[in-house]
């Protein structure tokens, strides 16, 4: 059965209702001037809006009951937005051209300088230079200078496509085919990524190579007439994909494993059955036999709220005789705005079986005392009035971790403070600097460089505190699959399922750029997607 969403409209063409595939109704109401007045959601919670005489929204009440207030200047530019209940506030001022001049938020005061063409030249933070820009004759960014004086330079071809990126004295070059597809990336020293396309511009071959042409990793892709990927061949073998009429994956046949999926009428995954050709380790020991529990089939079932939020994931594991040997249940709770507040994991076993962790874990500290069993998994999250994640607390693998975050007025995370039970809850502080919403610099509490990130079209490399580069190699989806040094020697290896969950992680040195080329917080397993959004893939 396909995904079905129905809409109704008024005479002005404004949407009145939306009914999803489960029959859940969202209702929209408008003011006499056509502005949205209320949105009544399937969970019974309402978002409401109030406006001034110019039609500017002056108050938005969210589903948590928080009121965000807006103040404008005579031009309709926002001077301040504040959440009444939490006190979260951001203030702005502008120049005569309407460019932002100052921004005050929890991270401090930012000052912006522009050239005669209203292009951003510099951002200062609390009076100190934060980041600077220079441009070529047609307006492309030609140079970026960070707060430590590190410079990244860019050149472009006649079509204004990025051609070279130079940083740390080393140049990365992009080339394109006649259709504008990226044809190759060549890093300093000769490591390269080469792309081949079919006549419909689908990527059919990606080769990551050492300077001498030796293949580091290779990906071959095939597609159906609808342009959907039907197979991928890499060093593990060939993986094939089948789809339903709505384009959703219903079967993946990978080396050693076949996975089947089903979906509900709203398009949400409701089941996932994984069958293996050989027994899989569960990481748990049967206390009766003393042997590690192994399974060959795992059945997963997903339960959702009326707002399509995942409430429960039940994973049942079966042995070769089709006997259920373990069940893992993950439950998730949300606030009314849909922010994830809590997640807990529990285990259920047959009466004749007991679970023991294969390794012990202990955690001690002010926030938690005693021994934490390795089987205990739970997470809690706290959000501010702007729905940005402010604190994450996790218990997993016998370790207790707390992470707190600060943001600027553009909702970019600028600070992270982490405390871990296995490090005596000592504060580990990381400050972040961004170039057009991309992380380019991490510093510690004293301002010392921890990691630099060189950004071109994609992330090119990370540079550690010892000024050593690690270059990123990708698959066709843009996932980081290896990091290598300048000679092409592999440092780290990664692989993922289609949902972004890691299936392979082998690291020689720490790296945060992972699935889809996005930044992961290894402490929580959350991906940082900018604008204060942090999610599990």
UniProtKB/TrEMBL annotation:
The record places domain Teneurin-like YD-shell at 106-239
The entry's keywords: Repeat
Q: Which residues form the signal peptide?
A: none
* Superkingdom of origin: Bacteria
Pfam families in the record, alphabetically? TEN_YD-shell (PF25023)
Protein's UniProt keywords contain Repeat: yes
InterPro entries annotated for this entry?
T6SS_VgrG/RHS (IPR050708), TEN-like_YD-shell (IPR056823), YD (IPR006530)
Protein known as: YD repeat protein
Q: What is the lineage of its organism?
A: Bacteria, Bacillati, Bacillota, Clostridia, Eubacteriales
């Amino acid at each position: 059965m396909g995904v079905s969403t129905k809409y109704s409209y008024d005479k002005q063409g404004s949407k009145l209702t939306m009914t999803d595939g489960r029959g859940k109704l969202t209702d929209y109401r408008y003011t006499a001037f056509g502005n949205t007045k209320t949105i009544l959601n399937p969970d019974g919670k309402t978002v409401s809006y109030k406006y001034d005489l110019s039609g500017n929204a002056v108050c938005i009440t969210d589903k948590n009951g928080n009121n965000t207030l807006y103040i404008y200047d005579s031009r309709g530019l926002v001077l301040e937005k504040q959440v009444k209940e939490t006190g979260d506030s951001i203030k702005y001022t502008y120049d005569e051209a309407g460019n932002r001049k100052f921004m005050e938020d929890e991270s401090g005061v930012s000052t912006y300088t522009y050239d005669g063409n209203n292009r951003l030249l510099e951002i200062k933070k609390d009076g100190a230079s934060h980041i600077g820009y220079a441009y070529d004759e047609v307006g492309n960014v030609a140079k970026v200078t960070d707060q430590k004086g590190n410079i990244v330079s860019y050149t472009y071809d006649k079509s204004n496509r990025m051609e070279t990126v130079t940083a740390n004295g080393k140049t990365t070059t992009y080339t394109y085919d006649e259709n504008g597809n990226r044809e190759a990336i060549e890093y300093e020293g000769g490591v390269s990524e080469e792309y081949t396309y079919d006549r419909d511009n689908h990527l059919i071959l990606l080769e990551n190579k050492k300077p001498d042409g030796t293949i580091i990793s290779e990906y071959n892709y095939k597609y159906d007439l609808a342009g959907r990927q039907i197979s991928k061949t890499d060093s593990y073998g060939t993986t094939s994909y089948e789809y339903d009429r709505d384009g959703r994956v219903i079967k993946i046949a990978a080396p050693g494993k076949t996975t089947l999926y089903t979906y509900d009428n709203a398009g949400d995954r409701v089941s996932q059955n994984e069958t293996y050709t050989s027994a899989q380790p569960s990481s748990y020991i049967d206390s009766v036999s003393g042997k590690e529990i192994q399974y060959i089939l795992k059945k997963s079932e997903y339960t959702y709220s009326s707002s399509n939020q995942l409430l429960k994931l039940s994973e049942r594991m079966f042995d070769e005789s089709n006997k259920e040997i373990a069940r893992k249940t993950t439950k998730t709770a949300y606030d009314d705005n849909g922010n994830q507040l809590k997640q807990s994991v529990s285990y259920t076993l047959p009466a004749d079986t007991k679970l023991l962790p294969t390794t012990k874990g202990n955690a001690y500290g002010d926030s938690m005392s005693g021994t934490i069993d390795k089987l205990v998994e739970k997470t809690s999250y706290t959000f501010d009035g702007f729905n940005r994640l402010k604190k994450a607390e996790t218990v997993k693998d016998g370790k207790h971790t707390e992470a707190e975050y600060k943001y600027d007025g553009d909702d970019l995370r600028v600070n992270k403070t982490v405390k871990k039970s296995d490090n005596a809850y000592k504060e580990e502080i990381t400050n972040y600097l961004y170039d057009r919403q991309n992380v380019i610099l991490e510093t510690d509490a004293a301002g010392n460089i921890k990691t630099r990130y060189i950004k071109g079209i994609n992330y090119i490399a990370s540079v550690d505190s010892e000024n050593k580069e690690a270059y990123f190699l990708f698959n066709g989806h843009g996932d980081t699959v290896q990091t290598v040094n300048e000679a092409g020697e592999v440092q780290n290896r990664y692989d993922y399922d289609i949902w972004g969950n890691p299936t392979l992680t082998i690291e020689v040195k720490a790296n945060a750029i992972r699935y889809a080329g996005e930044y992961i917080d290894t402490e929580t397993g959350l991906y940082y997607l900018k604008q204060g959004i942090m999610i599990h893939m």
